[in-house]
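To the structural biology subgroup,

Please find below the input and predicted structure for alanine transaminase, which we are adding to the shared reference set this quarter. The sequence is reproduced verbatim from the submission form. If anyone notices a discrepancy with their own records, reply to this email rather than editing the shared folder directly, so we keep one authoritative version.
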Amino acid sequence: FLLQSFLKLFNEIIDDKPSGVLIPIPQYPLYSATLAEFGLAQIGYYLDEDNKWSLEISELERALGECKGTCNPRVLVVINPGNPTGQVLTRANIESVIRFAHKNHLFLLADEVYQDNIYDKDSAFHSFKKVMTEMGEPYSKMELASFMSISKGA
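Predicted structure (tokenized):
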């Protein structure tokens, strides 16, 4: 319900083009279904399976470039830890994502509901909000919605 309420905020047509939302592939189907329900354009970016399902900035740039004529990109969704992949983003990766979102004027939506479900002893969860704050301005002033749910905990 919270996700639907949030995405309604971006449901507008500008210059005869719908708002676009970048979402990871693979991802939890709720995102693509909700985007379709509200008429928002789905901009898929692929996670790198060969590199522990990492999120590559070059892939975000590719996805953003391909959609420029068909929609107005407004939101970047990042699922960390990933569902269904289980990947956990490194702090350096999160910093790169934050810089990308800032550079491209994207609202950042961090789905962090599985932060307590990390089973790889070599992985550590880093909150987008904490990383943004520690990066300082201008990143600490960016718009961010971060989701957490105790119902998803172990």
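Summary notes: The chain has a mean pLDDT of 85. Residues 19-143 form a domain with the Aspartate Aminotransferase; domain 2 fold (CATH 3.40.640.10).

Regards,
Lab coordination
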